[in-house]
Amino acid sequence: MAMYNNIIVLYLLFCVISFEGGLGVRINKEDQELFMRSTSVSQAPAPSAIVPPAPAPGSTGGTCKTRVEIFGYPCEEHTVTTEDGYILSIQRIPNGRSGSNSGAAKTPVLLQHGLMMDGTTWLMNSADESLGYILADNGYDVWIANSRGTIYSLGHTSLSAADPEYWNWSWDELTAYDLPATFEYVYNQTGQQQLHYVGHSLGTLIAMTSFCQGNLVNMLKSAALLGPVAYMDQVDSPLARGAADSFIADAIYWLGLDQFDPNGEAVHNLLAKLCKEPHVNCFDLLTSFTGPNCCLNSSAVEVFLDHEPQSTATKNMVHLSQMIRRGTVTKYDYDDATENMEHYGQSSPPAYNISGMASDIPLLFGYGGQDQLADVKDVEHLLQAIQPHDQDKLTIHYLAKYSHADLVMAVNAKQDLYDPILDFFHLHS
């Protein structure tokens, strides 16, 4: 369920971690070039502007220096501490390149990335092609979230990321702690009563599971949900489904590997070897996970490989695997009635009632016909589940040629998707 080749890396790690036990090292530039030569992404439309190469995460300056200010935008680095002690990085682009109306109060927009990604999700293409910049140039106050466990959100008030307890969470905690903390921080910093929200993939799931409980809706103008994830039993990515059905994430968790680091040495070595094989087409391998992405280009993919994929909790991967196998949207299942009782006061995990979202929340659902992670059948199930929804508050934006990564990385996404999002925000401003 998330983005582009992070799923490849995920599956390769599934295949080898039990045997090689790799520790985290990022894929180096030589192997990135090898990967790029082995793909067909260069056949996508050329970008309208050259995308500057991005330094690897962890270099000085953070996202503002490496991805925003280089395009001529102002940018601020912020942090927020969640109720359970995680210290999250947030970037703010307060106005566009022109600087016009820089002192005027603007409507905030919060951008939330998906699984094993970070805020760079919204900044991978040129300034004219990436949603984060486009929103700023259109007069919005842009806030970019980075979930716990990502490179700039590894802080905690009492734990180190080297502590197993640091990784004792799933997306339940993103719903319960990260998203509310980020909403409230934007509210307090801007003085604006409400914000627009854009989520991709896992960023849609944590939003819907908040909204269906009545949380955060008083601070919400509207929500654009891209590649929406809730019901997942129709996921038809053969390798993602195979990993879930084989309980591989569960096995990794049982082995005591609490941090799921997709940049481990074992994966690094295997990916490099795999792409050297004459019979292996890495682009087709991507397609087997995400569905065929129509509109990626090599510059954006280079930025992607410089920044992603990010670490997550193995427990989070187990939770998502449970959803794929069962087709339900529930809290994490400890697979033990006694332990579930300790956490939930009942023997089975409570369900999130997606149908409980208020019918008057302005929602835009953007999804692709080629997406094998937010599968069309699963999205249709979701859309049926939220009915009846006020029709003047519901926008469905279907892109037949798009797959999962296209929704945030396609070079033509501005006209295909981002302009409609701007129209949607204007309608519900």
Describe the structure.
Residues 1-24 form the signal peptide. InterPro entries: AB_hydrolase_fold, AB_hydrolase_lipase, Lipase_euk. Belongs to the AB hydrolase superfamily. Lipase family. This is Lipase. With 429 residues, this protein is an alpha/beta fold. The protein has one domain: Rossmann fold. The protein is 38% helix and 13% strand. It has 16 helices and eleven strands. Strands 1, 2, 3, 4, 5, 6, 7, 10 and 11 form a nine-stranded mixed beta sheet that branches. Strands 8-9 form a two-stranded antiparallel sheet. The longest helix has 20 residues, at 171-190. The radius of gyration is 20 Å and the shape is globular. Residues 1-59 have low confidence and may be disordered.
Q: Which percent band covers the strand fraction? A: 5-15%
Distance between the termini: 30 Å
What is the CATH superfamily?
Answer: Alpha/Beta hydrolase fold, catalytic domain
The count of DSSP E runs of length 2 or more, i.e. the number of strands, is 11
Separate helix tally: 16
Q: How does the helix and strand content classify structurally? A: alpha/beta
Outline: globular
CATH-level-2 architecture: 3-Layer(aba) Sandwich
The level of helicity is 25-40%
Report on the biggest sheet.
Answer: 9 strands, mixed
The overall pLDDT, averaged over residues, is: 84
Radius of gyration: 20 Å
- What are the secondary-structure elements, in order, as H or E? HHHEEEHEEHEHEHHEHHHEHHEHEHH
Number of domains: 1
Provide a brief overview of the structure.
Helices cover 38% and strands 13% of the residues.
